[in-house]
Design goal:
Elements: H1 4-19, E1 42-54, H2 57-62, E2 70-81, E3 84-93, E4 98-106, E5 149-155, E6 158-173, E7 176-187, E8 193-203, E9 209-220, E10 231-236, E11 239-243, E12 248-256, E13 264-270, E14 275-279, E15 283-284, E16 291-298, E17 301-310, E18 315-325, E19 329-334, E20 338-341, E21 346-355, E22 361-368, E23 373-377, E24 381-383, E25 386-394, E26 397-407, E27 410-421, H3 435-458
Parallel strand pairs: 11-18, 20-27
Antiparallel strand pairs: 1-2, 1-9, 2-3, 3-4, 5-6, 6-7, 7-8, 8-9, 10-12, 12-16, 13-15, 13-17, 14-16, 17-18, 19-21, 21-25, 22-24, 22-26, 23-25, 26-27
């Protein structure tokens, strides 16, 4: 039932079953064997005492340094269906670990799906049928043990009718003696186990051994006000918004109810592999800070991260919604290659496109060009988004001009191809006149010159003598 405590109970039961026959008592007529518990009923237990003494130290060492390694144990009713009762058997150990085990018991047949550590089926000794009394069989089976007595006892401050089932036995063999006694106490109305105890004594050939143990109820919500020690998880904040590659965080807090001392293991489970999350502490021990920080990064998208806390017998979760958006950014592009002839210029449009809510001022510059090429921008900044004009001139050739844009903490650039071709050379007219016309023209020029000369000569007076080279106008006209 409760690990070591369960071992002891089963060990005791197995010994009784193997060595004793049920007491032969007249049975009280019972109309029906039905559960008297309800879902949610809870009973808590603690080890009342335990001891082991032996002339052979290895006997007690093999059973551990102490039977009492549990901080507390609990029995919780989960479901009732006909004679079947579904239980949750809970143990919290002193080292902070915990465990739980499901069990189904039948109060009519005494069957149980809990395996005995001592071998064989121990039957149901957790919850019996309600309203049984002395001389009744503990199960609806003529071969089942019968209660020895029913008496009124004070249990957890309340007066309760309690059914007792006691065994004792002793025998000797091969020079050794063996004696055992065990006792069970059940609440009459609910049929829930109140206490179990046993003692074993051996002497002789096998050595002297004395073992005693008792497990008793310390709280319940059947006639008491006990609550199962438990915990809760919470996240703050429950919604985390992340921009770009930043890391988002949420504080995970463990809230312990009174009496809960178990160590809680934490696990972060994202809804997608596109997000990565980690916890600053995966184990929260009693007495520690009981807080852990969830940190997440990932690709843009909306996610849910479940944080599971496992307290050994109880699992609770907290949930965090994570929204990741891309950084505000921009793109830069050009309208296409520039092509023109030398002596003129060419242009291209440089465009800044905003992304993810980008509103920053973007500064632009011509960051790269080649010798023989000159390029300028008509504006060196754009607010949010917009366009500028790139104008280039230069010598013939093929070039690449780079425009760099910087804004919002990031930079991008675009490369624009530029092709400049040479301007065509000036054309000279060529003569198409035939040689005969050329020669004819020369002849006409000679005749014209002779005619002009003749006219000047004939205007000289008769008898005038003109010395060669003398063209003075002092001569007298006729």
């Amino acid at each position: 039932m409760f690990n070591r405590a369960r071992f002891i109970i089963f060990f005791c039961i197995a010994l009784v079953a193997l060595m004793l026959s049920p007491p032969t008592l007249s049975a009280h007529a019972t109309s029906t064997y039905a559960p008297a518990v309800a879902p949610g009923n809870l009973a808590e237990y603690k080890v009342l005492y335990d001891s082991c003494q032996s002339t052979d130290p290895s006997v007690c060492e093999s059973m551990g340094s102490s039977f009492n390694d549990t901080a507390y144990a609990a029995l919780q009713v989960i479901e009732v269906s006909g004679p079947a009762v579904t239980l949750r058997l809970i143990t919290i150990y002193k080292n902070g670990t915990g465990s739980q085990e499901g069990a189904i018991v039948d109060v009519a047949t005494g069957s149980s799906n809990v395996t005995s550590l001592a071998g064989g089926a121990p039957g149901d000794y957790f919850v019996l049928a309600g309203n049984l009394q002395a001389s009744d069989h503990i199960w609806d089976d003529p071969s089942a043990p019968t209660f020895n007595s029913t008496s009124t006892e004070t249990v957890l401050g309340s007066s309760r009718s309690v059914n007792f089932l006691n065994y004792s036995s002793s025998f000797s063999s091969y020079g050794s003696s063996f004696s055992t006694s065990s006792g069970f106490a059940f609440d009459q109305v609910s049929g829930v186990l109140i206490e179990v105890s046993f003692s074993i004594t051996t002497t002789g050939y096998a050595g002297d051994i004395q073992i005693s143990f008792a497990l008793g109820m310390v709280g319940n919500n059947i006639w008491g006000t006990a609550n199962l020690p438990d915990f809760g998880l919470s996240a703050d904040p429950t919604t985390v918004n992340i921009v770009g590659s930043a890391t988002g965080t949420s504080s995970i807090s463990l809230n312990r109810s009174p009496g809960f001392s178990a160590t809680v293991k934490l696990t972060a489970i994202p809804s997608s592999s596109s997000i990565t999350c980690s916890l600053s502490s995966n184990s929260l021990e009693n007495g520690g800070s009981d807080t852990s920080t969830l940190s997440c990064t990932g690709a843009p998208g909306a996610y849910t991260v479940a944080i599971d806390g496992n307290g050994g017998y109880s699992i609770h979760s907290a949930s965090v919604t994570v929204s990741i958006t891309a950084n505000p950014d921009f793109q830069i592009s050009h309208s296409g290659p520039i092509s023109f002839q030398t002596g003129s210029s060419g242009t291209a449009t440089i465009t800044i496109t905003a992304q993810n809510g980008y509103t920053s001022t973007t500064n632009l510059e011509v960051s790269s060009s080649s010798s023989g090429l000159t390029c300028n921008l008509n504006s060196n900044s754009v607010s949010g988004y917009g366009s500028v004009t790139l104008t280039c001139s230069g010598q013939p050739g093929s070039y690449t001009v780079t425009v760099k844009a910087t804004g919002g903490g990031t930079s991008h650039s675009t490369d624009t191809p530029v092709t400049i071709s040479a301007a065509p050379a000036s054309t000279q007219p060529t003569s198409s006149l035939p040689m005969s016309l050329v020669y004819g023209g020369i002849g006409i020029a000679v005749i014209a010159a002779a005619l002009v000369a003749f006219l000047f000569i004939r205007r000289k007076p008769n008898g005038a003598i003109v010395t060669a080279g003398d063209v003075s106008s002092s001569s007298t006209q006729a």
